[in-house]
Amino acid sequence: LKMSWACFYLPLRLLMAVCLCHSIRAPTSTFKSDLFNFYHSLILADGKETTVHLLKDIPKRYYFVLEEGRAPAPFTITVTPCDVPIEWSILRHKASASFLGKAARGDHDTQEISKSQKIPSTVSTIFNYKGNSVETYVGMSYYSALYMLEFLSTERDTHITVYLTTDTTSGHLYPELPLDPRIDIIGIGPTTVTLAWKHSPSVLQHRENIQYCLLVNEKHNYKSLCAAETAIRSSGMKVPPMLALSLSPYLLEPQQVMILSNSELSIINRASSGEVRQICVGTKNTYTVPSLSASTQYYFDVFVVNLLTNASAAYTGTFARTLEEPEPKMTELKDGKVIQVVLDGKKQKLNSLQYQARHKRIQFTFQPCRGQVQVHITKNGKTVASENISGLRYFSLKGNLLDTYLVQLRSTEQSNSSVKVQVSSHFHKPLFPLLPDSLKIKSFSKLRTCSSVTIAWLGTQQESKYCVYKKRIQDDQVWMELQSADRCAGPESRPRSEKVLCRYFHDTNLQRAVTTETIRGLDAGTLYLFDVYLMGPSGIPVRYYSKVVKTRKKC
């Protein structure tokens, strides 16, 4: 059984007496009059944000009335679409005071109402809107009126949030925006954009409970955090907790990266369609967005977020295109000359070297000093070599006179590194020494004592100088020492106190080109780092891979 209109005009405490309503059958009417059927409606909570789920083409209705005896007072309704545009409206159904008095006293002849189907009342639409912007309606509420809100999505299933309040004295759920809510772009570079915005009045009044959060993406602006989270979910990514609360640790998905530095939290959500970067910056009203791609258009949104209520307000979004990356400086390589190139691991920039061949056969030599290096060589625009190297490496190439070679170098790690490079057409005069099959140093566990260690390394057929150095280290220094070793630095970079010996050695039989050395005078139970330097005729050193050995504690 449907309920009659009379039920809606009773004070809320009388609505519980549903037995009075079940005996009265509502009239058959058009869609507009059917809008107020109670079984299609829900009570909208006062002072709380309500999440409303909408099915496509199916309207959803909410209503609210004031408590009995309350004087006319202002009320506000804020609706936040979280995805597609929606339609929503506010209708007011106002009955005559005499009818409401009878209904409240319970002396109304409900049978007469059922027969006449006439109720002394007026229905008016006081607001309607269609779109996906956050909209707020401010009006006056009356004791003698029932308000109905209707929401409709015509594109697809979606959800929205609705906030109703009749108490304008206890502060705002949503942070306030300044009179000018625009975001200003005050600086643009190839990989950065600097933004500024005017302070929210809420930040000035409640600094400890308010913060600003930014959204950066390559698709479009978002009119609310709710809409941004929906878009991230639809792209297949799991959304972390609301930005306002995301300073608490939580588990990230594999496609998410969280960066926390200088009290700023960045969350990067990666997907095939691009990335959405979320950055919370506290109460600062300027921010430089780093690590952007050159010559790319980005959209920037700023939200002021209430940390206590999790509610947010959106500034007017903006967009900007980063500048083109300047052409990398081209370094000309000279035949036979060795240069050292420093690689920026953080910015991952390419370093370009160019060489014009004066002979048909040439040889490139690369000696990484620290870390792994990506080497890419092209000849007249075509790739002839591409490899990641971590040790001394030669590339012998054939071509024609005046061929143009382009060498591009990049660090494969986040830390800075460097590499020595040489190109030469004189194969019979190599600057780098002839290398053995392995640059590893071997230690003999059975020959270890409390005061000595025996090590061995491979030599070559070429007469070369080998220098051995030792360094006493602690257990917690091992990893750092091995990672920070500069393999291009020679013995001159070491203190004299660390030098053990230098000797010349070679053997025409490679199977016998092995040398051993016992280092004495060591302390018991102590870690030592051993290095061997190989120096050829030109004096350019090559450092073997460091070896860490611990002397016996008891003998």
From TrEMBL:
A Gene Ontology biological process term: nervous system development
InterPro entries: FN3_sf (IPR036116), Ig-like_fold (IPR013783), NDNF (IPR019326), NDNF_C (IPR045805), NDNF_Fn(III)_1 (IPR055271), NDNF_N (IPR056225)
Main location (coarse class): secreted
Cellular component annotations (GO), alphabetically ordered: extracellular region
Domain named Neuron-derived neurotrophic factor N-terminal: residues: 40-169
Localization per Swiss-Prot or TrEMBL: Secreted
SUPFAM superfamilies the UniProt entry points to: Fibronectin type III (SSF49265)
Limits of the Protein NDNF C-terminal domain: 382-555
GO molecular function: heparin binding
Keywords: Glycoprotein, Neurogenesis, Repeat, Secreted, Signal
Domain Neuron-derived neurotrophic factor first Fn(III): 193-322
Transmembrane segments: none
Pfam families xref list: NDNF, NDNF_C, NDNF_N
Keyword Glycoprotein: yes
Superkingdom of origin: Eukaryota
Signal sequence range: 1-21
UniProt key word Cell inner membrane: no
Designated name of the protein: Protein NDNF
Classification lineage: Eukaryota, Metazoa, Chordata, Craniata, Vertebrata
